[in-house]
What does this fold into?
Amino acid sequence: MKIVSVVGARPNFMKIAPFIRAIKEHNLNGREQIDHILVHTGQHYDDKMSKAFFNALDIPNADINLGIGSGSHAEQVGRTMIEFEKVVRAEKPDWVVVVGDVNATCACSITAKKEQIKCAHIEAGLRSRDMSMPEEINRLVTDRLSDLLLTPDRLSGDNLRQEGVSEERIRFVGNIMIDTLEAQREKAAQLDPGVIVREAMITGQSLLSREQEDALAQNRIAVMTMHRPSNVDDQKILTEIIDFLMNEVSIDMPLLWPVHPRTMNQMKSFGLWEKALACENFLLMNPLGYHDLLRLNLGARIMLTDSGGLQEESCVLGTPCLTLRWNTERPITLREHGGASVLVGNNVEMIRNEYHESLAMERKPVRPELWDGKTAERIVKAIVGYGSKEERRPETGEGRKETGA
Ligand code: UD1
It folds into this structure.
């Protein structure tokens, strides 16, 4: 069996690493061999956004890099389709496997189906119902086209059924990001937060003070990430959030912020960059590696983020998480579902209230069903056995009742 899997942007890399490992294990067990080809579309190309993750997570170099780079959505999707079509025609795989919701996910699922190749989507069924998000459009298109929809939780399966997807295409397999978290958390726990911050801090800032060193050693830190266009492309919104962080959060404790390239560009163009760099307890950093950010999250008092992945990781680690969005495609991570996260949008009044409430909370790790570190194994099993009777033994309740593929 030949599988071509696709990554494009940073959040894809943590999802593909366990899948590649599970394929290796499958092949070692002497079953029908899987010939695996990894394609990187090149949507994220900076070393810190891409290469560092391949190295840290032991992902083999991509067999093929499409070199797509930056551009408008149409440019990224269009260029990816043109280049990926050539790959699919040359390699003639049995399956194309796509992950997450980035432009590469959508572009390659369309191409695969037009070339009549079976497509599997890892992290299927998530819905924010917010059509202003490019990721939601990518999810809808990819799920509509994919043959095999591998869902991270039961709510996602329900979303697909409501859209009329037949049971045969859905497999509840759990959250593959958590495979990576479980495989790497021990290594991350050994790291020294002081070293992480000093090495990543953006030039121009002073060294860490004694108080900051103490706060880092005692995990008295707030961690922040933000890159969604809805938060960073509007000058008023971005200014208000940054003012709140500088005037309130960073007074309470050091605020650690690895800055996404899009956000840095916007802060510079709105005249916020120098102001933020000058604020003492506001520690702006280059994008962090996987282990470094995981180490900070392992102990942080609070996480402020608009990233879906960090929302999930905070849930499993128990870090109180303010999700800087009005909606989420990952409701399972929210407090009302037992998780650690609360939606605060980009309204400073709401952010402030929930910030104070969250600081009063204890860490409470929560592990949703099948977020057990074994999702990749189930995925390989589901793909290899797709269509066979053995893979969906009704007597065990697998498949139809969603107890795991
Ligand atoms: C993309 C994904 C988003 C994901 C995010 C994580 C889509 C639609 N969005 O958004 O779901 O959460 O990645 O990072 O696919 N840039 C660089 N270097 C890089 C990559 C980007 O400088 O390696 C800059 C470019 O100026 C680019 C901008 O960042 O225009 C935005 O990058 P892009 O890949 O378009 O989207 P993201 O906002 O990163």
